[in-house]
Amino acid sequence: MQLRFLGSGDAFGSGGRLQTCLCLDTGAGLLLLDCGATSLVAMRRVGVDPGDVGWVALTHLHGDHFGGLPFLILDGQFRRRARPLVIAGPPTVGARLDAAMEVFFPGSTAVVRRFATEIAELRPEAPAQLGPARVHAFPVIHASGAPAYALRVECAGRVVAYSGDTEWTDALREAARGADLFVCEAYTFDRPLRYHLDYATVRREAASLGCRRLVLTHMGPEMLARAAEADHERAEDGLSIDL
Fold first, then answer.
1. pLDDT at position 98, please?
2. Rounded to whole angstroms, what are the CA distances from 32 to 4, 21, 52, 65, 87?
3. pLDDT at 123
4. Cβ–Cβ < 8 Å for 19, 65
5. How far is it, in rounded angstroms, from Cα 207 to Cα 225?
6. Which member of 41, 104, 106, 199 has the lowest number of beta carbons within 10 Å of its beta carbon?
7. Which secondary structure element, helix H or strand E, spans residue 51, and what is its range?
8. 107: burial class by Cβ within 10 Å (0-12, 13-18, 19+)?
């Protein structure tokens, strides 16, 4: 199984990085963890076929984490996609997706699609089965107009956890415990910022997370400028990790 960082950046393209999109190759299709607005560009850049994406799991409903979905859906429509697409996210994900599609492409929600699109709501009390992967949602602290989650994905005997965007919360320990890989936001280096993680906090708490490997992502300008001072691995667009 392989995880590829199609986009490892923040909302603002800091460092020239594309917005958040992690691609997990399950062997039975691709599962995206978040799908920022630049995700289709990222796929084209590295030769990932959007038609191979079977499932999308969203941490929260900000544009740099879910804004690529209207483009993914319309790409499938124009390219005569047949494979069903399952989109799982926090409550209201279906309404927010429809609203985004109507803002970007008025009338697009009324068009009969060539492929089935299933919307599922992730809830902490009920893990979701997305194809071969089991996805657990853990509530975190990030204002986005709907609940925000860290995600824990179990597939083929491996576990990948992902913080999403959040300030520190003990839920991250639950999500990361025993994971083969924990992908963790580090937006600033040592400056506390509401609703986001700074690297100083991540470094302080790293031993308590209980994961086998930790990789930093969603780094803002300050963190990128001081990245060489970090003790942990840093993601970059295109990085692939075999699990």
1. 98
2. 10, 7, 10, 11, 9
3. 96
4. yes
5. 25
6. 106
7. none
8. exposed
DSSP 92-156: THHHHHHHHHHHHSTTGGGSPPSS-EEEEE-BTTB-EEETTEEEEEEE----SSS--EEEEEEET
End-to-end CA distance of the chain: 5
Sheet arrangement for strand 240-242: 117-121, 85-89, 53-57, 30-33, 21-25, 2-7, 240-242
User: What is the residue type of 153?
Assistant: V
- Residue in this structure with the two tokens 């780094």, named with its chain if needed: 219
Q: Both tokens of residue 60?
A: 């929260």
Residue 191 is predicted with a pLDDT of 96
- Contact (CB, 8 A) for 96 and 62: no
What ranges do the domains of the chain cover?
2-242
* CA 80/CA 19 separation, integer angstroms: 26
| CATH number, span 2-242 | 3.60.15.10
Chain centre to alpha carbon of residue 196? 15
231 secondary structure, DSSP code: S
For CA atoms 165, 98, 38, 75, the dihedral sign is: positive
φ/ψ of residue 33, rounded to 5: -105, 105
Residue 33: strand, helix, or coil? strand
The amino acid that residue 31 corresponds to is L
Residues of the chain with pLDDT under 50: none
Beta carbons of 115 and 104 less than 8 angstroms apart: no
